[in-house]
Amino acid sequence: MSRIIMLIPLDQKVGLNTVSLSIMYYFNIKQNSIYHNKSKKSILYFSCIKNELDYSTFIINKYFSNIIHTIKDIDFSKLLFQSSDYLSLFTKIMDICHQQPMLYELIFIKGINKYDHIHSEEINYDLAINLNAEVIFVDNLKNDSISYITNKEKKINFFLHEKKYKNILGIIFNKIHDPFLIEKQCSFIKKLRILKESKNQIITSIIPKTYFKNNFLKIIAYIPWNRNIMQIHVLDILNFLNIKYIHLINKSTHIIEEIMIFDESDENILSKTYCNTLIIISFSRIENFIDMIKLLDFKKNKIRCIILTGTAKLKENIIFSCQLLIKKSISIFFTNKNTIEILSKLHDFDFNLKMKDKIYIKKLQKFISSFFNVFDKILLHKKNKTISKTYAPKEFCYYIKLFSRKKNKRIILPESYEVRILQATSICYSEKIAQCILLGDAKKIYQIAYDNNIHLSKKIEIINPDLVKNKYISRLVELRKNKGMNEYIAEKKIKDNNILATLILEDNQVDGLVSGSINTTSNTIRPAFQIIKTYPNNTLVSSIFFMLLSNSVLIYGDCAINVAPNAEELASIAIQSADSAKIFNIEPRIAMLSYSTGDSGAGYQVEKVRQATNIVRHKRPDLIIDGPIQYDAAVSETISQLKAPYSPILGSANIFIFPDLNSGNIAYKAVQRSANIISIGPMLQGLRKPVNDLSRGASIEEIIYTIALTSIQAK
Predict the structure, then answer these.
(1) 40-44, 137-141, 539-543, 624-628, range with the lowest pLDDT
(2) Of 430, 536, 642, 662, which residue is 20 to 30 A from 636 by alpha carbon distance?
(3) Residue 173: beta bridge partners?
(4) Could you count the other beta carbons within 10 Å of the beta carbon of residue 190?
């Protein structure tokens, strides 16, 4: 399986491009040393936003396409968070990351820069959590004073408290002591001056141990700002200005550290010291300039480049006028634009232009990756495989759609005149989630679909009840004769589409049934109890809900069927819920809920839960279970250590068994509506064939996922 690593910025100007390229460079170098001459997998890279500042994709495609693949058309920049277009793009990424996992050793994602999108934090979090990505944060440090770092630490801790990331590898602090972070509006000339003034700066990546004393994150690297990375050469300026030259020395290897505008009125021009200087001169003043610098000692003064502005003469005439400059090995550019125009354009000079130079990029990668002193332990150390699978909400939805698509089961929907059912059917057909069979009059169904702008394919199967119900009358009589059923009563009963659909399921014409969007729970499940019935060794039918929280999926049971289960029934609900969880590759960790934890309380309700827990332990010693336990101790490791320090679930329960229907139903609806989350279910357990009930307030999404669950349950 591929490792998915996501780089997430915590501030502006953190050097996301350079760090991204350096991590992939480091990963590839280390992989070579590990696998030697063995064939290795490639790296897959994509950025969440495509814009003119994203040099990474350009560089990879130009220089590293043999080892790093990129994805086209991934761009969240113009999409509203959680909009249909957003979800569509998200699904595309899920497909890429999950359908071809063996092709790549590493899938590397560059997150969205802060302030590049109004919901940058939400999108980064959504992707990282639902792709189950390992996260590396990137931040900058303007200085390393105690007060500054303490404030930085508080901000990061607050951010981590707000966003509950799961798989954090660590943090990289980049651009330490970068003077450009302080100067928000910095002209080209000012930047050159800063570079010159920092010429003798000592590069260090050592931060005193007293800093970041809380060890809030594993620090992967401290990367200092290095002025050598920012060096500007003659050819960089030539390419940026897109002007011509008549003389270019040493293919532009000369460094430019300062710019000067020639003014013949400056009496101190000869007394100045020129160090890697670019001089801008109006061509009309070239003779004055040459006369003034004839006495200049060019061994001590390094004039690297001359830009002649306002040139209207032929190239040959310019060469003739600049013979002295050519002899002194000075590069000469010329343009018909005036000096002010050239200065104005230089103001927008992009210091990242060098990111397009391969030699520079490799030097940069080596410099930055040299500070990854703990990457051997973090980046290259694969996490141990665990039995337990923890899903994020979108990941779970993607998984059940994928699983349902593979099973391709026939699910009958008796409420075919309900708009939400038709919308869900249309989506299930287009996404191939399941084969939905509608029970009703085709003409009426198509009219409802047309009136509500629903595209309903003619390939979707529709069963007309009037054409099939007579053949099921005798079967209903046979199944219910011990309860006084006769042909007359059966003929009346079978007019109910729920009963007819259940008989069609019992006849193996379909694989599952979903109803309840307009019918009560009892109307949906009573026919299943009477016709489908339970397994021979089971007398109980129960239900679970999948609660899709912000960063996890929990299972609640029983919140729909059993009003006041006794200890034996409660134990059965727990066992059924655990077995259902395993269908979805979720390793069950069961919390038997009560108002009391351990031995802290007493009473009939507490004792019932305690007895149920012991029954489960006796019948299924393979299951991880604790009870009686309060909800907070079941979900929080901190509270668990206080209230139940020896609990086997250690505050990480994923299945919650409520003591009765009253508490369970109230709890699931309170969480669903207050947290505005998707709740999938109830999914019924214990029946010989899958029949699932919808809440009458179910959304289209919830109906689709219930159809998928039913398909997965089918054998």
Answers:
(1) 40-44
(2) 662
(3) 139, 222
(4) 14
